[in-house]
Amino acid sequence: MDKVKKISWEKITSLLQQLYSVEQQIQEQHVTIQSNTQLLVSLFHAQFRQLIDREDIIDSLLQLDFETPQLFNMGRNLQSEFAFTLNHKYILKVVSGTQYRYFKNTFHQFYFKIIANKNCLLARTFGIYKLEDRENKSYFVLMENLFYEHKLQNSQIISIYDLKGAQSSRITKNFDEQFQQQQQLLQTKAQTIPLLKGKDEDFKKIRFFQEFSNEKKLDLMNQIKQESDILAEANTMDYSLMIITGYINQCQQGNRLIKLSNNVGTIIGIIDYYQEYNSTKKLENKFKTWFGMHKPDQQISCVDSDTYRKRFQIYFQQFLQD
Question: What CATH class is the domain 6-144?
Answer without folding.
Answer: alpha beta
